[in-house]
Amino acid sequence: MTAALASENLASADAAIHLGNVSKVFGKEGADGSYRAVDRLNLDVARGQMLAILGKTGCGKSTIFNMIAGLTEPTSGTVRVSGKNPFSDFDAFRGKMAIVFQSDRLLPWRTAIQNVQLGLEMLDAPPADRKDTARQWLIKLGLGGHEDDFPHALSGGMRQRVSIARAFATNADILLCDEPFSALDESTAGKLRAEFVRLVKENGKTAVFITHSISEALEIGDRIVVLKRPAMIAYDVSFNTDTSAEERTLIRGRIGEVLAA
Amino acid sequence: MTDTTHRSASPSVADVMLSAIKNVGTSVFPFVVVILLWQFASLFFPRFLFPSLIDVFWRCLDIFSSGAMFGDVMATVLRILAGLTGAFIVGGLLGLVMARSKMIDNFLSPMLTLFQGIPALSWVVFAIIWFHGVEFRIFFIMVMTTLPAFTFQVIGALRGMSKDLTEMVFSFRPTRMKLFRVMIAPAILPDILTAWKVNLGNAARVVVVAELVGATGGVGYQLLQQQQLFDMAGALAWTLQLVFFVLLVQGALTLIETTAFRYRAVSERAL
């Protein structure tokens, strides 16, 4: 069987992303109204791995995502991305981490090509180079000819393609995706998912993909972590392209059981 | 044979022209009524009450063509622009600081609210007592009367910025300058232009009061002269100078809005 439980952690030095005994409490710990979103979570993501984090709404997926992105500080424990703390060493990750959000989050006052150039502007890339790179990514994602369109003139799928182009344009090593296709119809989402997987593999990225869809997790990840509230790992499985359909069905069934439990 | 050709849904040039003439006619009509009523009244009332609008027109031309009188108009215009610019800079900085620090906000907000309650004429009196130079007095009055609105508008715009978009920009780790350039400035620009439009009208009213009492030139000073001479045509002509200026600047601001906010989606159904 090519699928294997991946519960044994990597040595954190080798991991692209390392979460060691991480907890996050919103509000004052122990006080009324405080909320423990993540509880002593241990998780390592290897370089070049595509990890799908799966869980029901409110299980702490987005909190983990924000901690890896450096947008939220853990209450306790260690978060390391490429060996650095993404919250305190925030600026050190300029150009090294890119995010695709649930909604496209395009700046409405910028055209498609200007939105894709955003990350490159932060890296002080020369204007001609960044325009060229942005145009190439838009073409790769099937948006050639829409470079000068403002977001309001694009469909939901096209806008999400722009946001994927924006993330890839910076050539960051680590990609974080927070349910990026959940707002799209299944046909568009399916096409974008396939494109996304191809681009991640082609460019050798490490990706963390948050989702609440078992099918999406199986399609995207080469490892799936199922979370149960408050963000504790309930199931952790790795697989690859050799994993048979039968094995995938077994994994799907097991994930379903874990989520239902 | 049945003609199945569909008629084009887009309006013809004639329809567009007719619609434009209708729109202009609708907005001009009230002014035409007022002008006609005034002109009618001028036939029955003494000149110092309702002068003929033809007289007013010639007085306006005199002001435009006389270097000294046009200089008075320009002095007022510059005072308005200087005052608004000063208030915008100070108000913008205060807004930024207050949006960042709750403590500073708690300290300054009541003070600005208090300032909003002080009449423009009181600031004129304070300025005359506190300061010597005429120009500085007027600048001070203009800044103090328009500062709270600018500050509150900037704070509101900063707090109303989309959290999602800000987080997205933050994810690229921008420097402070870049964050301001790519996110903050474009996000708050619509509110800033609105603040300028609102404050422009206020400033045009306040500057006249300031000049009436404390200046030796400008539209306000000239209005005082017309009042002493009981010259209604002159008073109207000088007032119209300020109205023209306000309309001109409002037009420029609208042009900026149209150009800068062309990214906004427009619904075909009006509100």
Write the layout of secondary structure elements.
The complex is a heterodimer of chains A (261) and B (271).
Chain A: E1 4-5, E2 15-26, E3 35-46, E4 50-55, H1 61-69, E5 76-81, E6 97-100, H2 112-116, H3 118-122, H4 127-140, H5 156-169, E7 174-178, H6 186-202, E8 206-211, H7 214-220, E9 223-228, E10 232-238, H8 245-260
Parallel strand pairs in A: 4-8, 4-9, 6-7, 7-8
Antiparallel strand pairs in A: 1-10, 2-3, 2-5, 9-10
Chain B: H1 13-42, H2 53-65, H3 67-100, H4 102-117, H5 120-130, H6 134-159, H7 163-170, H8 176-214, H9 219-229, H10 232-260
Helix pairs in contact in B: 2-3, 2-10, 3-4, 3-6, 3-8, 4-6, 5-6, 5-8, 6-8, 7-8, 8-9, 8-10, 9-10
Give structural notes.
- The complex is a heterodimer of chains A (261) and B (271).
- By secondary structure, chain A is an alpha/beta fold.
- Chain A has helices at 61-69, 112-116, 118-122, 127-140, 156-169, 186-202, 214-220, 245-260, and strands at residues 4-5, 15-26, 35-46, 50-55, 76-81, 97-100, 174-178, 206-211, 223-228, 232-238.
- Chain A has a single domain (46-75, 83-260), classed as P-loop containing nucleotide triphosphate hydrolases (Rossmann fold, 3-Layer(aba) Sandwich), CATH 3.40.50.300.
- Chain A is built from 8 helices and 10 strands.
- Chain B has 2 domains: 13-44; 53-260, MetI-like fold (Orthogonal Bundle), CATH 1.10.3720.
- Chain B contains 10 helices and no strands.
- The relative contact order of chain B is 0.11.
- Classes of the chains: A alpha/beta (261), B mainly alpha (271).
- The A-B interface holds A 69, 71, 90-91, 93-95, 97-99, 101, 103, 105, 107-111, 118-119, 121-122, 150-153, 170 and B 164-165, 167-175, 178, 182-183, 186, 261-265.
